[in-house]
Write a structure and sequence with these properties.
9 helices, 6-stranded antiparallel β-sheet, 8 strands, alpha+beta, elongated, homodimer, two-stranded antiparallel ribbon, DNA-binding, 264 residues
DNA sequence: AAGTTAGTTCGGTATTGTAGAATGATGTTG
DNA sequence: CAACATCATTCTACAATACCGAACTAACTT
């Protein structure tokens, strides 16, 4: 374990989308290292383009980080395989489509096809979010071993983001059981107001739920009149992505192509 | 300058999308450092999620890199401001839309809205490409100071990717002059076969061309019947993005809204 | 079974990262 | 306008620790 590398990473991770600019002094307040240590770290990172220095002496993360993402394993192995299928899904549904993985106790969004009515300015890629109140997170949880689900649900305060957020572990567990049976989970505006989602899990070759994809919209019809059609194509998409990850669906749970399926 | 941090970065940058997996031995062949040095660097990076270790002992880049991109300055300052405008542009044109910045002598793609007929599986975000044979690159070059243009054109071999690639500096310079006058540049399948693009430059508050956006399609109509309409809305989009970057367009070059403009 | 290659552990040395203090630059307040 | 405060940067000296050779183990090859 090389201390200076650890510290360099901690310096980079101090920067966030809501706080993307720091002066040296501000960083010394955040991090438990002396000024000069952080100073030389910043200079080193700057020489490689990992941080940039503003005119006014402030620092932010540099562009050299962006090309690295193309080589990240999950992007090569999962995103690049899933992208064409998600494209078809998005064209069929005319709604935003997301791909996120389980990253520790959270979901990490690694791909998005955002439809025009998504008003959020920022790209979701790279964002992390809670598992218990998103369709993606619940879809992953619903197929995880019970003890792991417990450790995620119980080691975390279930924050009530909206009126619909499920904060009762009993209710949540019931919904996960239901999701496991149906093969998909919903987000009835449980995280953001007026955002409705359907999420379906993606499995790896060991049949572990490592990720999920979702259809997301601002129309509540998503969970009523459109649900049957959308959930079917979403589950099929997730299954085909899983297949490309080496997963072999069982005969009972397999989803077949039919007339309502755009993947004919 | 901290040596171990430099080395750690060099280790990470050894991974690419075409070569995303390495064993320790392979890395020692690529990098001029002893086995044990690279070994401890990998272990350190792994502890922070910056590299991941496969079952078979091989290494690849880890997911912890992905959230960092949300805090990268250019993504906060430019991408997040440009995204809604590019969304409108894409909806209007029904074509793929790209945003790339000048990064040294190359273009770095930082945002993309890919339309359904884009068959490429991979996301372009994070990719780098040459400036002299893309509409984005030429759009940036066309507004750069002459000496900087020279250093890019002359220090680089102009590879002939397709039959249409311009490899003659004289022809290229003439086209850049034309682009500067018109306010946009074309890519007539000069980099990839059957890909046609229109690119327009984006300026910062100092009126420097720091980036460009483009409309990209597989239909040659892009450069004929659709050109007038598309180039107008593209230029307007680029201007409005520039404005959000602090650029103040001059009265002569300003593009006004009109009936063919979706931004009414 | 011998040989080759790769991953990992170990330990001594010398490099070099670290942090205190001092300096210079900038901005702020009375 | 001066006195003060804050911040970035330079310098220096010591001690920590990164570094790398060598040794060891495991897996695979011939």
């Amino acid at each position: 374990m090389i201390g200076s590398v650890i510290k360099a990473i901690e310096v980079m991770q101090a920067f966030t989308s809501s706080n993307p600019v720091f002066s040296l002094a501000e960083l010394t307040r955040i991090l438990p290292y002396p000024k000069t240590t952080i100073y030389t770290l910043l200079q080193t990172l700057e020489s490689k383009g990992f941080v940039e220095k503003y005119e006014n002496g402030k620092y932010s993360l540099g562009t050299a980080i962006i090309p690295l993402t193309q080589a990240v394993r999950i992007n090569v192995q999962l995103r690049d395989r899933a992208a064409p299928l998600l494209r078809i899904l998005s064209d069929y549904c005319h709604e935003s489509v997301y791909l996120a993985i389980k990253d520790g106790d959270q979901c990490l969004y690694i791909y998005a096809i955002e439809s025009s009515d998504r008003l959020l300015a920022r790209s979701a890629i790279g964002e992390v979010g809670p598992m218990y109140c998103s369709s993606i997170g619940k879809a992953i949880l619903s197929f995880m071993p019970e003890n792991e689900v417990n450790s995620i649900i119980e080691n975390e305060v279930l924050v009530k983001y909206t009126d619909n957020t499920i904060t009762d572990p009993v209710v949540l567990r019931k919904e996960l059981a239901e999701g496991r049976q149906k093969g998909f989970c919903l987000d009835n505006s449980e995280h953001e107001h007026d955002v409705y989602c359907i999420g379906a899990p993606i499995f790896n070759e060991h049949a572990e739920p490592i990720a999920a994809c979702s259809i997301s919209g601002t129309d509540v019809e998503m969970l009523s009149s459109k649900l049957v059609k959308f959930s079917a194509v979403l589950r099929y998409t997730a299954q085909e992505i899983s297949r490309r990850m080496g997963f072999i669906p069982s005969r009972e749970t397999m989803i077949w192509r039919d007339a309502t399926n755009p993947f004919l």
